[in-house]
C-alpha cells in the first residue's frame, strides 16, 4: 500500500471508530453530545428508592440524617419509643431482609405501567450500596441484610423480560463518611472521598451493569471540579461499555444543575410551567412527602391517578420526561397501592400512548380557551401530521371549543380508542368547536384524561415563539429539606 493509500485508510478507520469525535473533559464538549433518541421518545420512567432507610420506614429516606444530623424531635422520639438506647443506624441493615423481593415481578409491574426506562437507587446518601461493591466493604447488600446483588438481579430481570432501559441512581456523597467529612472540613481542597469512593463506585456500576442512564445526585455541596465529574463523563462518553447509548442528568456539581448534562432535572418535582430550551425531566413521587417507603403514610398523602396523569400530560406537553417514583418495602415488595397507581397509568397509556411516546411539543402547549387541554404532536414524513389535544376533564354540553387548532379541508377529529370521527365547525373568532357525541360509559376508551386526534390541521407544523421558553432555574434544595 502506498503512502497516500495508507493515509486514506487511516482517515477512513478513524471515521469508522469516531476517533475524531472524542469528547473532552469540559462542558462545551460534553454538552455537544447528541441526546440518544430512545430517551426523548420514551417519555415515561420509573424511579425506585430502596435501601436501609426502608427498614424504619418513617418520615423520609433521609431518616438517618434527620435522626442524627438534624436531630429532628419527631425522629428522635420515634427511635426512643421503639428501639433500645444504644441502637445505631447500622443496626437497621441486618433487618433489611428483602425476603419477598422478586425482580421478575417488579419487571412485570414496570412493563404494565408503560415505562420506557427504570432508574434504581443503587446508593443513597446513607452510603449503603445495593450491589456487592468492592469500595463499600460490609456496608452493602451482599454482605449484610439481603445477602444478594439487588442491582444485578433487577437489571437481569428487566433485560430478560422487557425492552425497558435500565438505569442507576448514585449519590456522590455520604452524610457521615469520615473521608467525605474530612474533605468537607478542608473546604473541598482535598479529594480523598472522591478518589476512594465516588469515582471508583461509578466506574464499577458502569462496567458491571452497563446502565443506560447514570442518574447522579448528592453533588450540591461542592463543584464539579471537586467531584471530577467532567473527567468521568468524558470516559463514559468515549470509552465506557455504554458510550453510544448512555445518558446522564445534570447533578454533577453545585454549578451544573439546569446548565449542563444530557437532560436536566434542575430540582426535585421540577415543573417549569413553560418550555425549557433543553431536554428536561420531572422526577416526582407517588408519595407527596417521601421518596422512600413510609409505614405511616396516609391515603391523602399519596397522589391520585388523576393527579399523576395530569403531571404526565403537562410534563410531556412542555417537552419533558416523566419519572415517577415508588418506594418498596424493606421486605422487597411494591405495596399494592403503589402497584395500583403504576398499573392505572399503564392502562391509560395502553389506550393513549400514541399521544405520549415519540411525540414532540407543538406550537401551543396549553389551549388558550379550554385551559384543561394540553397538546402534543407528531409530524414527520412517514406519519399523518397529527396534533393531540389531551382533555383533563370531559367536555360539558357535548361540545368543546379549542382556541388554537386551525382546521383545513382535510382535517378529521377522532377520539383515541373510539371508532369514527367527530363533527366540528370552524369558530368565527378562533379555533374550532368540536361536537362530542353521547358515548355510553361502557364504550368510553378510558377513565381519565381523554385524547382528541386532530389530523391535517393548517397549523400542524410546530413553530415555537422564543418568548415561550423559560430560563428560570429552580433553587437547589438544602440538606435539611430533602423533599421540596
TrEMBL record:
SUPFAM superfamilies given in the database record: (Trans)glycosidases
Presence of the UniProt keyword Disulfide bond in the record: no
Keyword Cell membrane: no
Protein name: alpha-L-fucosidase
UniProt EC number: 3.2.1.51
Reaction it catalyzes: a neolactoside IV(2)-alpha-Fuc-nLc4Cer(d18:0) + H2O = a neolactoside nLc4Cer(d18:0) + L-fucose; a neolactoside IV(2)-alpha-Fuc-nLc4Cer(d18:1(4E)) + H2O = a neolactoside nLc4Cer(d18:1(4E)) + L-fucose
Entry similarity comment: Belongs to the glycosyl hydrolase 29 family.
Chain ranges of the Alpha-L-fucosidase C-terminal domain: 365-455
Residue ranges of domain Glycoside hydrolase family 29 N-terminal in the record: 19-354
Top enzyme category: hydrolase
Top-rank lineage group of the source organism: Eukaryota
Keywords associated with the record: Glycosidase, Hydrolase, Signal
Amino acid at each position: 500500500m502506498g503512502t497516500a493509500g495508507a493515509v486514506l485508510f487511516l482517515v477512513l478507520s478513524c471515521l469508522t471508530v469516531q476517533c475524531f469525535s472524542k469528547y473532552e473533559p469540559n462542558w462545551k464538549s460534553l454538552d455537544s453530545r447528541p441526546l440518544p433518541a430512545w430517551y426523548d421518545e420514551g417519555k415515561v420512567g420509573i424511579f425506585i428508592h430502596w435501601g436501609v432507610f426502608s427498614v424504619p420506614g418513617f418520615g423520609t429516606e433521609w431518616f438517618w440524617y434527620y435522626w442524627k444530623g438534624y436531630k429532628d424531635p419527631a425522629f428522635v422520639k420515634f427511635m426512643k419509643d421503639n428501639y433500645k438506647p444504644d441502637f445505631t443506624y447500622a443496626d437497621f441493615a441486618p433487618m433489611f431482609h428483602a425476603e419477598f423481593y422478586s425482580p421478575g415481578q417488579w419487571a412485570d409491574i414496570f412493563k404494565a405501567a408503560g415505562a420506557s426506562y427504570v432508574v434504581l437507587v443503587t446508593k443513597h446518601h446513607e452510603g449503603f450500596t445495593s450491589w456487592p461493591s468492592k469500595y463499600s466493604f460490609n456496608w452493602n447488600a451482599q454482605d449484610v441484610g439481603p445477602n444478594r446483588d439487588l442491582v444485578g438481579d433487577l437489571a437481569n430481570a428487566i433485560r430478560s423480560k422487557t425492552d425497558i432501559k435500565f438505569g442507576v441512581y448514585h449519590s456522590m456523597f455520604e452524610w457521615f463518611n469520615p473521608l467525605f467529612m474530612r474533605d468537607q472540613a478542608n473546604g473541598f481542597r482535598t479529594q480523598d472521598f472522591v478518589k476512594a469512593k465516588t469515582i471508583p463506585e461509578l466506574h464499577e456500576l458502569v462496567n458491571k451493569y452497563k446502565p443506560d442512564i447514570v442518574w447522579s445526585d448528592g453533588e450540591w455541596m461542592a463543584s464539579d471540579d471537586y467531584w471530577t465529574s467532567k473527567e468521568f463523563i468524558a470516559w463514559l462518553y468515549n470509552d465506557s461499555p455504554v458510550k453510544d447509548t448512555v445518558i446522564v442528568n445534570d447533578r454533577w456539581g453545585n454549578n451544573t444543575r439546569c446548565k449542563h448534562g444530557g437532560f436536566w432535572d434542575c430540582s426535585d418535582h421540577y415543573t417549569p410551567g413553560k418550555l425549557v430550551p433543553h431536554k428536561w425531566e420531572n422526577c416526582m413521587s407517588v408519595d407527596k412527602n417521601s421518596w422512600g417507603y413510609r409505614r405511616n403514610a396516609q391515603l391523602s398523602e399519596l397522589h391520585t391517578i388523576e393527579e399523576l396523569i395530569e403531571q404526565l400530560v403537562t410534563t410531556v406537553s412542555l417537552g419533558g420526561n416523566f419519572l415517577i417514583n415508588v418506594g418498596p418495602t424493606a421486605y422487597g415488595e411494591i405495596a399494592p397501592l403503589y402497584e395500583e397507581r403504576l398499573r392505572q397509568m399503564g392502562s391509560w397509556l395502553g389506550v393513549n400512548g400514541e399521544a405520549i411516546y415519540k411525540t414532540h411539543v407543538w406550537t401551543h402547549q396549553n389551549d388558550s380557551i379550554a385551559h384543561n387541554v394540553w397538546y402534543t404532536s407528531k409530524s414527520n414524513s412517514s406519519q399523518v401530521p397529527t396534533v393531540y389535544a389531551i382533555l383533563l376533564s370531559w367536555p360539558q354540553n357535548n361540545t368543546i371549543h379549542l382556541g388554537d387548532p386551525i382546521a383545513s379541508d382535510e382535517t378529521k377529529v377522532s377520539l383515541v380508542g373510539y371508532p369514527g370521527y367527530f363533527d366540528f365547525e370552524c369558530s368565527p373568532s378562533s379555533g374550532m368547536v368540536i361536537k362530542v357525541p353521547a358515548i355510553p360509559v361502557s364504550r368510553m376508551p378510558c377513565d381519565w384524561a381523554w385524547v382528541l386526534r386532530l389530523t391535517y390541521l393548517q397549523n400542524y407544523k410546530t413553530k415555537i415563539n422564543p418568548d415561550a421558553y423559560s430560563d428560570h432555574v429552580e433553587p437547589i434544595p438544602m440538606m435539611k429539606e430533602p423533599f421540596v
